[in-house]
Design a protein that fits this description.
Layout lengths: L1 H6 L8 H32 L6 H8 L1 H18 L6 H38 L11 H24 L5 H17 L1 H16 L7 E4 L4 E7 L3 E6 L4 E5 H6 L2 E3 L7 E9 L5 H18 L10 E7 L4 E9 L2 H21 L19 H4 L20 E5 L5 E5 L34
Antiparallel strand pairs: 1-2, 1-5, 2-3, 3-4, 6-8, 7-8, 9-10
Length: 433
């Protein structure tokens, strides 16, 4: 073989090492091409037959890093095996190869994480109850990818024999200072993340905050939540306060809203007829009102014996909050009209005053028109008791009593000592005392 190489002019063995190096490099490039253009399409075709595409995404994410890894491996072998490198050169090659391998590994891992987030957004996230959380996932994907590249950069610096301890310490102190400086912003950011991922509030929902504003949700952002009130005004609420308050969502768990209507009728009413008329009114509303939920039905029950009426309530359901106002208004008008036709009385608040026998306005009025000083030791001017003195000494009185006025006088009746009047000593006993 040596004589043959010498006959063709290749007797010098100086060319052998570069030839072997070139052979390693050529083999690596060919293998990378086969791996990239032949094996990967075959693997992708096989993974495409599965029910989930997560495996397909994983293969696609690692395609370019693995292909470049084969090329880097071929370059490393072509430099270290055939070539007789000294210690310094070998250390340099090892360091560069290690940096390239670590960089490719970081890129592959970051691609895998990114594809995992993409798979969740496209496949799983579309079936979730609320799509509000999908706004958080892209941000989390960017933050996670940035953290992976940041940690990878520190590892590369450490591989290059760069002391990263001062850098890590400065990053920690700098991060603490930044966190303290932007603490309100971070609080709103994390609260906005919580609000979005919770899925309890969505744009278009009508909500009411405890002791605060109420209106329609326009947008849930990273820093604040925007609400449009009934006055068509925009209210911006920081997410830190929004996440801590008690919220009533009128669109959840469903958009239907219950309509509860209390009412009352006189004690003289026929309660059976009242119930019959009320049920007829609710049945008509369910049939004719487009805002009513017919499938929910109508409910009626008497509630309490109140001061002036026998109270009861009507219970139906509207399709949404706006429809509940229309349904309640129509129900009140229809019920009032039917009660008028049936002569069913809804009483005003009234109060009846009953006096004991021998005790009343006539026994309390003195001759001068003032209220006599009785048991309770008070003497008041009778502005609501009119008195006219007859020539025979009799007094004609008229009394008007209200809920807020109770006349107190001498409860002992005849024989008690009253205030003497200037006109002849008319006291609590009446004429002739």
């Amino acid at each position: 073989m040596d004589s043959f190489l010498t006959s063709v002019g290749l007797g010098d063995s100086g060319w052998l090492a570069p030839a072997i190096a070139g052979t390693f490099l050529l083999v690596a490039v060919v293998l990378a091409g086969i791996f990239h253009f032949l094996l990967f399409p075959l693997v992708i075709r096989m993974t495409g037959r599965t029910s989930s595409d997560i495996d397909n995404r994983i293969v696609r994410a690692t395609r370019f890093p693995l292909t470049l890894g084969i090329v880097v491996l071929g370059i490393y072998l072509s430099l270290t095996i055939p070539l007789d490198l000294n210690g310094k050169s070998q250390g340099f090659v090892d360091t560069v190869t290690g940096v390239l391998a670590l960089l490719l590994g970081i890129v592959a891992f970051a691609s895998l994480v990114s594809q995992a987030f993409e798979w969740y957004i496209d496949s799983v996230g579309s079936y979730t109850r609320s799509r509000m959380g999908l706004r958080v996932l892209p941000l989390l994907r960017r933050i996670t990818t940035a953290m992976i590249y940041g940690i990878g950069a520190l590892l590369i610096l450490d591989l290059l024999s760069v002391n990263i301890n001062p850098l890590v310490a400065s990053l920690g102190l700098g991060g603490l200072a930044v966190a303290l400086a932007i603490q309100p912003t971070l609080a709103n950011l994390f609260a906005g993340t919580y609000v979005m991922t919770e899925g309890a509030i969505n744009p278009g929902d009508y909500i009411e905050l405890e002791g605060s504003v109420s209106g329609y949700v326009i947008e849930v952002g990273w820093r604040s939540t925007r609400i449009r009130t009934w006055g068509n005004n925009l209210v911006v609420i920081p997410n830190a306060k929004f996440a801590e308050t008690i919220i009533t969502n009128f669109n959840e768990p469903q958009s239907a809203v219950n309509v509860f209507l209390p009412c009352g009728v006189s004690y003289d009413s026929d309660l059976a007829r009242v119930e019959e008329v009320s049920r007829e009114v609710m049945a008509q509303e369910l049939e004719e009102n487009p805002h009513a939920v017919k499938e929910y039905g109508a409910w009626f029950a008497f509630d309490t014996f109140a001061d002036s009426n026998v109270n009861f309530w009507l219970f139906v359901q509207a399709k949404d909050r706006l429809g509940s106002f229309v349904l309640q208004s129509s129900l009140i008008k229809r019920l009032h009209h039917r009660f008028g036709q049936e002569a069913i009385v809804i009483n005003y608040p009234i109060r009846t005053l009953q006096f004991p026998e021998g005790w009343g306005p006539q026994a309390l009025v003195a001759g001068d028109g003032s209220i006599g000083k009785g048991r309770y030791g008070r003497k008041r001017s009778s502005s609501r008791l009119g008195a006219r003195r007859r020539p025979s000494g009799h007094v004609r009185t008229s009394a008007v009593a209200t809920d807020s006025e109770v006349v107190s006088g001498d409860a002992e009746g005849p024989g008690a000592s009253g205030a003497e009047s200037p006109g002849g000593g008319l006291g609590a006993e009446g004429p002739g005392a």
